[in-house]
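U., I forgot to send this yesterday:
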Amino acid sequence: MEKTVEIENKAVGASRFIIVLTTVTAAIMELLDTTIVNVALNQMAGSLGATIEDIAWVITSYAIANVIIIPMTGFLGEYFGRKNYYLVSMVVFGITSYLCGNSGSLWELVFWRFIQGIGGGALLSTSQAILFDAFPGKERGTASGLFGMGIVLGPTLGPTLGGYIVDNYTWGDIFFINVPICIIATILTILYIPKKAGEGTKKDQIKIDYPGILLLMIGIGALQYVLEKGESKDWFQSKEIMIVSLVAVLGIVGFIGRELNTDHPVVNLRVFGNRNFAFSSIFVMVSGFGLFTSVFVYPVLVQRINGFTPYETGLSLLFPTLTILPLFPILGRRMSAGASPIPFVIAGILIFAFFGFYSGTATTDMSRWDFYPMQLMRGLGTVLLQLPLINASVAGLKPNEFGAGISLTNMIRQLGGAFGIALANNYVAIQYAQHRSDMVSNYVPSNPLFMERLNGLKMTFLSKSGDAIHATTQAYRQLELLLDRQAYYLAYLDTFRIISLFFICVLPLVVLLRTKKKSAAEAAEAAKAAAESH
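Result:
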């Protein structure tokens, strides 16, 4: 009898391990694809005969699809059945990954990336819910920590793996690596992931808010487009951006009006009536701003200024991330035990603010390991903000409102990141022009330091070519490149400092957050609801 129980327990343990492996791997794979293409854009552009500006649609299309599908995943999982929805999303992601890698034109690739983003957004959202159901209530903190590790590890692995593939293989391989993973995960899903009781059997009882879904797609999709493409098109100097912005406003206003006046909204916006949720959303947006902006600016800085290769850049992000990963299960257990999220949020804000100012002291000769302390601070701030902010967001909500609250929280974080990247692009351009203007005033014959540097370069080029005119031209060209490099370097440092200022500005709002201490059972229920709507 004892032996039978032991075998059964081992089976449960083995099944749980497979579920953890499947869901966390799927989440890492989806998030990895948000960053892995960044280092392959040049190779893609050359292969497909596209400009760098046009090839950026490979990133934009995926982001737009993600931000549209995220708030609808709870509803779609309930309508089709969570396991069915997860399985179809996995298959869609795998097939479109193969089609992306085989694309022969830019717009073919952009189309498949959009469909891949729809499958991927659902894949990420549903993975956490399935993972949580594999653990009993008192152990869901561990599940939350495991999933949090995947959330941070995925985007960090992207540049490292992408850099290695680009250096040694072709750009199509960054998509093909998803295919065998999806096949294995699909088989494991069919065999080991159970269905919830009654899932997918209530279609007749669910009313679909078609106008709400359409307005959400139009409004949020157009907004994401403006944030992604605004800087490259000179913002509101562009007629296209003005028109799309108007569409975004009309779509979002129409969506809000629809959701507040229907009995069956696809997204329950009434949760914003809860003061705690409304103020928590501000912190969520700023955390998304800091996380995405810092990860966006840092690779550009170290590759353009410090001369890192894409692979070296990825490694410089990977090792600090691996250092802080063990903190996720610890923090997850604390949240599940009912600990107040506010002290962690305050600590995360302060650390992120320090990270921004600290990164603003970077120099042009720093090596990969010199950046390690800075990136460690970024990782620590991320750990202390992400999971506690989800808990803070739902602290004042009713259990039946958790799903809507968490869906909106995830969408707001994504939009915060898009806003941050758009702001960073614009701010770098402005600061670059300002720093260049300030420094170019020193490039005059009356400046002895300038003439000393110019003459030194002329002599160097003259010794190589023996042509005085050519040597003079080369010297001025070299000084121009140095001027540009220094102006961009200072602009990137300014952008890191702006990140700090955003966190400092929102810090006083912490006093407006209110959380009551939850029992372990209430905390576990909140965490489960959070997972199911992620």
